[in-house]
TrEMBL record:
InterPro entries: F-box-like_dom_sf, F-box_dom. Residues 13-61 form the F-box domain. It holds the Pfam family F-box-like. This is F-box domain-containing protein.
Length: 85
């Protein structure tokens, strides 16, 4: 077969830095702000730039934070308060 180039098999890895900016923005829009700063913004330089430079991500900031979910532990606030005195 003259002139036919065999297709390359799909890569097992992805170059997250190569995602178009609008795709990255759509991903970040669905991620809590804390996770953008603590995780997604650390993936690569282009994701960090997107996290810092995209004003639409920061027009409304949700500062609610679920410590139990973050540390993976449920606790009783009354028990913590009374045992600390």
């Amino acid at each position: 077969m003259d002139g036919v180039v065999p297709a390359e098999p799909p890569s097992a890895t992805r170059d997250w830095a190569a995602l178009p900016r609008d795709v990255g923005y759509e991903i970040f829009r669905r991620v809590p702000h804390v996770d953008i700063l603590n995780r997604a913004g650390l993936v690569c330089a282009s994701w960090r730039r997107l996290a810092v430079e995209e004003p639409m991500l920061w027009q409304h900031i949700d500062i609610a934070f679920d410590w139990e979910e973050y540390i993976g532990v449920a606790y009783d606030e009354d028990e913590v308060f009374f045992n600390s005195q």
